[in-house]
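Slide 14.
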Amino acid sequence: MLTLLQLIVRANKSRSKSQFFDAIDVELDTLRILVRLSMQLKFLSFKKYEVWSQYLVEIGKMHGGWIKSVKG
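Slide 15: predicted structure.
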């Protein structure tokens, strides 16, 4: 999560934001996998997994909107 946050901050401060978009996408996918794995290994309850998943979906939507706004 910290790496994702750092990439978002760097992209926000950069003139060429699009160079960071692929890295943000990779980190977001990695975080999704780790959250799912944490639930499957019983480190997270199903309820907490649902909450985290909803947050990750929302972050993904914001990321997609950011990409569209920069390219369009």
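Speaker note: The chain has one domain: 2-71.
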